[in-house]
Design goal:
GO molecular function: phosphorelay sensor kinase activity
Distance between the termini: 35 Å
Largest sheet: 6 strands, antiparallel
Catalytic activity: ATP + protein L-histidine = ADP + protein N-phospho-L-histidine
Number of strands: 17
Radius of gyration: 31 Å
Strand content: 15-25%
Shape: flat
Structural class: alpha+beta
Helix content: 40-55%
Protein name: histidine kinase
Enzyme class: transferase
Keywords: Kinase, Phosphoprotein, Transferase, Two-component regulatory system
Number of domains: 5
């Protein structure tokens, strides 16, 4: 259960205890041990504090390891820095110290590491946020998660102090922290009084739909009974079962009501008038009311079930795409290697024709398709760990054009303007994939030879890159829809093109991940111009 995720809309009980929403909060206490320890580390250093502890105790050993690492860092020897930092990590995974000492000591050391050295971004991401697997097999959690998960162990002033320093260090090291700040600011969640075990699903007066889950357990979501009833009323209107003035209301007690006992009332002036005029219509009205109530109950159950199935479908779809794509990589690599071998042995002979080269080309196309699908899946699930660095645009685009041009029959002519010396802060692998998709589209959606690519760049705070091709163009009404997932356009005058329809969608996601934007600036039958805007570094 990731404490960085919002939990106000879900309910989880395990073994009779409420797990979500989290109800823990910092203690109200006059002592401030975390601030005192941090100040002592700043004033005296870990070696001096270790001398004041009982020799051989885990905390004294931890302080000594911290001091050895700082000495190695100041001496500047990389092997010693790596060795002493590994020893500190090993000690953390081997000994569980009181959480206040553990969190404060780790945060102080990371602050010193950032101030006096050049820590790896991925290492700071793990120690501040994601956590990592220790060498002894136990897991070392990031300080953001530890502070939120164990906040009841901290005094409120200490919690605020550590929260501010963690956020500041995350900002300096380019580690995400906005969700950490939001969860820390949110405070404890709602405490739900639930009598366990449950016999059947319930709709509670406080807005929770709760269902049994295992022994002494339950799970639920926050729902609006009136909102669900309104959806039922709209659907019944569309089917002609209700008039505009007809209404539905659901009965609910002040506490919890089993779903099987919920009653939905129909308020229909039309039926009331008919019942008054025709006494014999009473039975029909009762029958309609019963049917409407049963239908409303069924629709409420179906709405909840449909939501659960939708969540499961999204998860299964993502898992299926990832599994299939990974399984395709190995056979595609084998096919390409065998095709290259075949081309070397029989290429150019009358009987072989161009079949080996066509096999290689198709294998490359399928490889790009698999790469796009895998990238889309990782970006959609937020699992891509970016490695930010200064990337020279001219060399990147030149390499992409050479690699992509080798995979197409038509030659590619690159005309750069203003790229020399331009660098952007970003993930080199993602930027390569971004320009590779744009160049590949330019080669596929054109009837001209050679394929002409004009790339211009300018810097005025932000970096703006314009990439123009001489393809068939994109209709004005499709300038935004081409960036949707699995969207492909059929161009007249060109043969049908394979692909997943994810290329431009991935390009826009990559630009968003870098804090930039991607749009179509102009398009006509003479070609299309894409404008990419990168934020200032």
């Amino acid at each position: 259960m990731n404490p960085l995720l919002a939990d106000t809309e879900v309910l989880l009980f395990r073994a009779g205890q409420q797990r979500l929403p989290r109800t823990a909060s910092p203690r109200e206490d006059d002592r401030m041990p975390a601030q005192a320890l941090h100040a002592a580390l700043e004033a005296q250093g870990p070696l001096a504090l270790a001398a004041q502890e009982e020799p051989g105790s885990p905390w004294a050993e931890r302080l000594l390891l911290m001091g050895h690492f700082l000495e190695a860092q100041r001496a500047g020897g990389r092997p010693a820095i790596e060795r002493t930092f590994r020893e500190w990590l090993t000690h953390r995974s081997s000994f569980v110290l009181p959480v206040v000492k553990e969190t404060t000591g780790a945060l102080w050391l990371l602050e010193r590491f950032q101030a006096e050295g050049r820590p790896e971004p991925t290492l700071m991401q793990a120690l501040l946020r994601d956590g990592l697997q220790g060498l002894s097999g136990s897991r070392i959690e990031g300080v953001q998660r530890t502070l939120l998960e164990r906040q009841e162990a901290f005094e409120r002033s200490d919690f605020t102090f550590l929260r501010g320093r963690i956020a500041r260090l995350a900002e300096l090291t380019h580690v995400a922290f906005t969700d950490f700040e939001a969860r820390a600011e949110a405070g404890p969640g709602e405490r739900v009084a639930l009598v366990l075990p449950l016999e059947e699903p319930q709709l509670r007066a406080d807005g929770w739909y709760v269902a049994p889950s295992g022994h002494e357990g339950a799970r639920g979501v926050r729902v609006s009974a009136s909102g669900l009833v309104e959806k039922v009323r709209q659907e019944m209107r569309e089917r002609g079962l209700l008039e505009e003035e007809d209404g539905l209301t659901v009965s609910q007690a002040d506490t919890s009501t089993p779903v099987s006992l919920l009653t939905v009332f129909l308020d229909s002036p039309r039926l009331a008038t008919a019942a008054t005029a025709l006494e014999s219509g009473y039975r029909l009205k009762a029958l309609l009311l019963g049917c409407s109530g049963a239908l409303a109950l069924a629709l409420i159950g179906l709405a909840v079930l449909a939501h659960e199935r939708k969540v499961r479908f999204v998860a299964l779809r993502s898992e299926f795409i990832s599994t299939v794509s990974h399984e395709l990589r190995t056979p595609l690599s084998a096919i390409r290697v065998m095709a290259e071998t075949l081309e070397r042995r029989v290429g150019g002979t009358p009987g072989a024709g161009n079949y080996p080269s066509r096999i290689i080309s198709e294998a490359d196309a399928l490889g790009r398709l698999v790469e796009n699908i895998l990238t889309y899946n990782r970006l959609e699930k937020g699992r891509w760990e970016t490695r930010r660095e200064q990337v020279p645009l001219e060399a990147l685009i030149q390499r992409v054009v050479e690699d992509t041009g080798a995979q197409h029959t038509a030659p590619v002519a690159l005309k750069p303007n203003g790229l020399s010396g331009i660098r952007v802060l970003g993930d080199a692998e993602l930027l390569r994939m971004l320009f590779s998709n744009l160049v590949s589209n330019a080669c596929r959606y054109t009837a001209r030879s050679p394929v002409e690519l004009r790339v211009e760049a300018r810097q005025d705070g932000a970096t703006v890159v314009s990439l123009s091709d001489n393809g068939v163009g994109i209709p004005r009404e499709s300038w935004e829809t081409v960036f949707e997932d699995f969207r492909r356009l059929r161009q007249e005058g060109l043969p049908a093109q394979g692909g997943s329809g994810l290329g431009l969608a991935i390009c826009r996601r990559i630009m968003s991940l870098h804090g930039g934007s991607l749009r179509i600036a102009a398009s006509s039958p003479e070609g299309t111009t894409f404008e990419l805007t990168f934020p200032s570094a």
